[in-house]
Amino acid sequence: MKTRCFVGTILWASFVALAGGAADEPAGNGPISIRRFDVLPTHSAAVNKENLQKAIDWASRRGAALFVEPSDEPYRVDGGIVLRANTSLIGVHGPVGRGTRHPDKPQPVGSVFAIEDREHPFVTVEHATQIRGIQFWYPQQTLKDPEKIIEYPPTIQCSSRTGAQGVTLSCLTFYGEFVAMDFVGRRGAIVEQILIEHCYGYPLSGRFIQIDYCYDIPRILHCHVNPA
User: Fold this and answer.
1) What's the CA gap between 36 and 14, in Å, rounded?
2) CATH number, residue 73
3) Does residue 18 form part of some domain?
4) End-to-end CA distance of the chain
5) pLDDT of residue 141
6) 212 close to 185: Cβ distance less than 8 angstroms
7) Is residue 10 domain-resident?
8) Whole-number pLDDT of residue 179
9) In sequence order, which residues have a C-beta less than 8 Å from that of residue 116 and are 6 or more positions away?
10) Residue 198's Cα: distance from chain center in Å?
11) What percentage of the chain exceeds 70 in pLDDT?
């Protein structure tokens, strides 16, 4: 009886250890869904921000990619996200200039972040990062009244602490942004090797990309901006 109890204790301890490892190391090859970290369309923007940042912190240590799993409802996320070095955030889209559309509601579908935060840039990027195949939607932005335009902070911004080098932004679509991409570096925190391609937007400030303290020629390819 004592032997059986001892063996059972060992087996149970092994199971608990394996379960703990599985929680820390999501299984599977390729990009890991952000839903594995409890980023869900049904959660509040604050909860999704906290969980998405945890996912990014996990991915940064491993040089991993996170998959923004498509949905008929957007992921509402507060601003202030930091896309830490070595991390990729990947969605399903090519450039969708006139937008995806829900069959019953005036909103995009797929890999969509809905942004309502008026105080913080949505995502700040560090070195060796990538954002690809994602739509950024500002549901509270006015569509018709120029007197009611909300001057949101930039959707994507370089890190003011480290600068940003080796950043790829591809196949992104912006709806209702004020400034889409802000890569204005500074002395000691430069930007370099920035690739922006196949990005579509409608910046209500008239500024789609702003860039300074860039130590090489930025690659800006096949982008469409309206109003021009």
Assistant:
1) 23
2) 2.160.20.10
3) no
4) 80
5) 97
6) yes
7) no
8) 97
9) 45, 76, 78, 138, 139, 140
10) 17
11) 87
